[in-house]
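Retro notes (design track)

What went well: tokenization of the new backbones is finally stable.
What didn't: we kept losing track of which sequence belonged to which structure.
Fix going forward: every design gets posted as structure first, then sequence, in one message. First example under the new rule, 466 residues:
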């Protein structure tokens, strides 16, 4: 009951949630830099401008920018085989429009990759994780504008050319299907009609396919994946209406991997456009580009499952990190209202593999919880160990009993970072504690939690000791 030889164990973060240094060494502001702190009952505000007297948690985050050596050393101590991270586009092209990249930004990622490789840790890199240069949102209305495809193409060529010898595994857009739930996160648009969301998503499909094709043409050893935001639904009952509601809810989200894994819009996608009066404007070669830029693997996040029921609309909850549908009476929830469903992970792996027959990675999974530092400085996060252990067991069964080709598993927010939905620090996922609070106070000191030592043993035993 072990994992396959060479399985990539590790952790994951996103640049805007951990790096800080939001305006250091030439970085431009991004869409993540205008967000205030929220809470479970208080959504973050995305402001129109950056004000001096407002606290923006992502500006300093946990200052990975200046602590990366110390942090990577801790990753190495846990025995990481890989580390999933993202590149901040606005560090490379501060507004997105420049013709030349920012050398200091490029150098930073060179340094991070070198540090990882020094310990034999394989970087897995997301090109765009919920942040776009703010300038492109303010002046182009984000991805609604076709011109942004060109700016993204320029950016992805620069990073692929620069890092292809150091980074083998890439992903284009984080949780690309979240566009229909939160256009600001992924499309850099403040508000968007259905027509605008699907047009902007078309631009992202083309941009992603161009990056995949460029990588394949120039660097055939690279693997470029898509990243699905883990939405998996069960019918609330066996009533045919609920089963059909589930099918239709899932169609909306699977629309995204369908295009990126298969390389075309299928009949169901076209019927959806027709029913909703969506008219996708395509340029002459777009269909060829989509076909030529099919991804090599599917990565996905997994935190929860939901239930579909006829007549209940599935939507993102107030604080933006959970999906509300019908209640599932069989599952407990986290303090942030996400259902806890380890077996759902095995179901998700089976379902995605059946549809696409591609290798997979689980690049986000974990428990957001409040941690207490005991008097002796120890953090006993047994609840997190329990959560992770149960999920990893299901993964192991999926590999060994179902034959699922799983390449990697990375725990989300392996070092405590700023929560994306609420901007809180106290919603912690990490195996490494960071002394920082919701108001930005704290020493930034890093301390391994109990789950650090537990995960180290999981990795050392290749998944046997859970
Ligand atoms: C995923 C995102 O949706 O969920 C991450 O890719 C995010 O960026 C994670 O951090 C957890 O959500 P939250 O709101 O708890 O940070």
């Amino acid at each position: 009951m072990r994992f396959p030889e060479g399985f990539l164990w590790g952790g994951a973060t996103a640049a805007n949630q951990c790096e800080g240094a939001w305006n250091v060494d030439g970085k431009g502001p991004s869409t993540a830099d205008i967000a205030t702190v929220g809470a479970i009952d208080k959504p973050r505000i995305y402001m129109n401008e950056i004000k001096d007297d407002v606290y923006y948690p992502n500006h300093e985050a946990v200052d990975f920018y200046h602590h990366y050596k110390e942090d990577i050393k801790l990753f190495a101590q846990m025995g990481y085989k890989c580390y999933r991270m993202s590149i901040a586009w606005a560090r490379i092209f501060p507004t997105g429009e420049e013709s030349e990249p920012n050398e200091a930004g490029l150098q930073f990622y060179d340094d991070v990759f070198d540090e990882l490789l020094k310990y034999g840790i394989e970087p897995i890199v997301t090109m765009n994780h919920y942040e776009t240069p703010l300038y492109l949102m303010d002046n182009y209305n984000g991805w609604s504008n076709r011109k942004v495809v060109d700016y993204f193409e320029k950016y992805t060529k620069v990073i692929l050319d620069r890092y292809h010898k150091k980074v083998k595994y890439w992903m284009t857009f984080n949780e690309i299907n979240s566009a229909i739930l939160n256009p600001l996160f992924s499309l850099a648009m403040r508000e968007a009609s259905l027509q605008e969301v699907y047009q902007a998503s078309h631009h992202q499909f083309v941009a992603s396919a161009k990056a995949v094709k460029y990588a394949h043409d120039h660097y055939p050893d690279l693997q470029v994946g898509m990243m699905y935001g883990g939405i998996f639904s069960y019918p609330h009952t066996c009533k045919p209406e609920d089963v059909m509601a589930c099918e239709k809810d899932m169609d909306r989200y699977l629309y995204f991997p369908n295009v990126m894994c298969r390389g075309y819009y299928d009949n169901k996608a076209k019927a959806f456009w027709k029913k909703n009066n969506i008219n996708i404007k395509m340029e002459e070669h777009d269909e060829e580009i989509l076909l030529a830029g099919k991804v090599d693997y599917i990565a996905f996040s997994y935190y929860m499952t939901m239930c579909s029921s006829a007549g209940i609309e599935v939507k993102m909850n107030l604080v933006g990190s959970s999906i509300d549908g019908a209640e599932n009476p069989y599952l407990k929830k986290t303090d942030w209202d996400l259902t806890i469903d380890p077996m759902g992970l095995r179901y998700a792996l089976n379902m995605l593999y059946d549809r696409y027959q591609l290798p997979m990675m689980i690049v986000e999974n974990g428990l957001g919880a409040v941690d207490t530092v005991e008097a002796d400085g120890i953090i006993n996060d047994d609840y997190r160990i329990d959560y992770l252990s149960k999920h990893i067991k299901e993964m192991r069964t999926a590999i060994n009993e179902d034959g699922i080709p799983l390449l990697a598993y990375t725990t989300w927010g392996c070092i405590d970072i700023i929560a994306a939905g609420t901007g809180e620090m106290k919603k912690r996922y990490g195996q490494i504690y960071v002394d920082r609070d919701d108001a930005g106070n704290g020493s930034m000191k890093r301390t391994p939690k109990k789950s650090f030592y537990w995960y180290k043993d999981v990795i050392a035993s290749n998944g046997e000791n859970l």
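Added context from the reviewer: The mean pLDDT is 96.
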